[in-house]
Amino acid sequence: MTEKHLSSQFDAELNRVSARVMELGGLVEAQLRTAVQALTSFSTEAVDQVVATEKRVNALEMEIDHDLSTIIARRQPTARDLRLLIAFSKATANLERMGDEAHKMARMVQSIIDSGTARVLPSGDLRVAAEMASDLLRKTLDAFARLDTGAALAILKEDDRIDAEFDRFVRTLITYMMEDPRKISASLDLLFLAKAIERIGDHSKNVAEQVIYLVEGKDVRHQSVEQIVSILQNPARP
């Protein structure tokens, strides 16, 4: 995903960081899939796997951050090279936070298991949203690896679907708690779990925005999908 430079050593450094960012993405993707498995089967074994992966995710994120700081200090990059390193840094931060959300999901699943109410909670719809978030992360990593702005735009639109699923689930859960107040405590765990899933979608969106920033040189944060479409249709690259 990087262009050739006069310095082959600089190329090697960029390629190494790129590979490590994708390695981090793969770890987080596996962590999220396991968290979804924990939710689907209410498996304590899957919960333990998510917790164990969290340590590896945090360690790798710190290593990438150190590598990026070293490259910037030594190379003092400008223009597209600087954008690339900034994109790596922001993608890394968002991936690490997705790992945090997967970890939160696992903790909430464990809390629900401990409460003994796992089989009576309305968790079916939430599993659908969790699978959507997992699939969105996979697409995000692919878009980042290929610097595909079209795929990045599709990710922004798909995140809106996850947000809509979250809003719908919250309404369903509120109705459920009103009908059976005895399940309020366990239902709140489910609500926090739903919020973690929604946040994973948000972080995937952030990474997709970095793809557009890197390719087009435009910061599209806080802009509507329609505005971003206009940018992609009328590029003004530096």
Automatic annotation (TrEMBL):
Its main location: cytoplasm. The keyword Membrane does not apply. It holds the Pfam family PhoU. Residues 22-108, 129-211 form the PhoU domain. It comes from the Bacteria. It is found in: Cytoplasm. Keywords: Cytoplasm, Phosphate transport, Transport. Plays a role in the regulation of phosphate uptake. Homodimer. Belongs to the PhoU family. This is Phosphate-specific transport system accessory protein PhoU.
